[in-house]
């Protein structure tokens, strides 16, 4: 099973929209896909039209009393299952820190599900707590949406430094430009600058009203609005990501 995390320091940059659409595209490619919603907001859960209810709660899951499969819910897509999030995840950092091997918690849970799924997509909350640390040492690829603005790039640099310190690896992080609006001169300038940075994926996901509707329609954009520019962006992103992850 390959583990793809959508993560980073910054909030509101398109992590959940990316996780939801990549999970749908992984399923469409014939991969048995598990989307794990690690964010107490439960946005990815909502986008797959599921109730925000983590069966058994986060404490039992991270405490080792339950396996991941017990929390899995099916979706309208036969190829995509979800581990939903609820507010019990709000203390997930404390729970993970308190466990005997904090870095191994997510990997141990995923290992229990690895025969059932080809791909796990982790939708992570923004920030650098114990869960984020565990994500860094668990994922095969860390996808980081970056807003084409100085503070977006700055946040990415902070995250990349954190990953380098934690793992020593320099090919784990896969940043890409998210929510670009090419009508804005600043976005165009930042895009040109970012294109010279070889760490970045080629794909750029545009700002698109089709994605804004995701929380309302509760269907992945690539399914609800396959002809939108954003859906095209997610398909390109999946092509790059699946090749890099060896899928
Ligand atoms: N490409 C896009 N075009 C337009 N709107 C987008 C795009 N990507 C995400 N959005 C919208 O922006 C908002 C934030 O997106 P999303 O929830 O995916 O970000 P996030 O990084 O997961 O946020 P958080 O850190 O709060 O979890 C949502 O309303 C979403 O629908
Ligand atoms: Mg999110």
How would you characterize the overall build of this protein?
The structure is a single chain. With 247 residues, this protein is of the alpha/beta class. It has a single domain (2-244), classed as P-loop containing nucleotide triphosphate hydrolases (Rossmann fold, 3-Layer(aba) Sandwich), CATH 3.40.50.300. The protein contains twelve helices and eight strands. The protein has helices spanning 15-28, 43-47, 57-63, 92-98, 105-111, 130-138, 150-167, 185-195, 209-212, 214-217, 221-224, 229-244, and strands at 2-6, 33-37, 73-74, 80-83, 119-123, 141-146, 173-180, 204-206. The protein has an eight-stranded mixed β-sheet, sandwiched between helices. Helix 1 (15-28) packs across helix 12 and helix 4 (92-98) crosses helix 6. The longest helix is centred in the middle third of the chain and has 18 residues, at 150-167. It is globular. The relative contact order is 0.19. Magnesium ion is lined by residues 15-16, 39, 43, 123.
Q: What's the CATH class label?
A: Alpha Beta
Bin the helical content.
40-55%
- CATH homologous superfamily placement: P-loop containing nucleotide triphosphate hydrolases
Return the structural class: alpha/beta
Give the strand line-up of the largest sheet.
Answer: 3-4-2-5-1-6-7-8
User: What does the overall shape look like?
Assistant: globular
Number of strands: 8
Computed Rg: 17 Å
- Reported by name, the CATH topology is Rossmann fold
Strand content: 15-25%
Order of H and E elements: EHEHHEEHHEHEHEHEHHHH
Number of helical regions: 12
Mean pLDDT: 96
Poorly predicted runs = none
Bound molecules: adenosine-5'-triphosphate, magnesium ion
* Gap from first CA to last CA: 9 Å
Q: Could you give a short account of the major beta sheet? A: 8 strands, mixed
Count of spatially separate domains:
1
Name of the CATH architecture? 3-Layer(aba) Sandwich
């Amino acid at each position: 099973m390959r583990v793809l995390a959508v993560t980073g320091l910054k909030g509101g940059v398109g992590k959940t929209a990316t996780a939801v659409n990549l999970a749908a595209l992984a399923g469409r490619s014939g991969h048995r896909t598990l989307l794990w919603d690690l964010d107490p907001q439960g946005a990815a859960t909502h986008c797959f039209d599921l109730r925000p209810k983590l069966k058994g709660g986060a404490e039992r899951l991270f405490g080792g009393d339950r396996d991941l499969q017990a929390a899995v819910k099916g979706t309208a897509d036969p190829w995509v299952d979800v581990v939903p999030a609820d507010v019990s995840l709000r203390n997930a950092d404390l729970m993970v820190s308190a466990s005997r091997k904090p870095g191994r918690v997510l990997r141990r849970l995923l290992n229990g599900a690895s025969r059932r799924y080809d791909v796990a997509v982790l939708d992570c909350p923004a920030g650098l707590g114990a869960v984020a640390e565990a994500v860094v040492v668990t994922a095969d690829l860390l996808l980081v949406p970056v807003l084409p603005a100085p503070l977006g790039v700055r946040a990415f640099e902070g995250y990349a430094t954190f990953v380098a310190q934690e793992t020593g690896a320099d090919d784990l992080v896969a940043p890409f430009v998210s929510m670009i609006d090419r009508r804005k001169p600043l976005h165009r300038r930042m895009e040109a600058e970012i294109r010279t940075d070889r760490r970045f994926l080629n794909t750029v996901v545009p700002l698109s009203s089709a994605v804004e509707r995701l929380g309302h329609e509760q269907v992945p954009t690539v399914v609800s609005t396959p002809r939108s520019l954003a859906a095209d962006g997610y398909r390109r992103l999946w092509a790059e990501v699946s090749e890099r992850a060896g899928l």
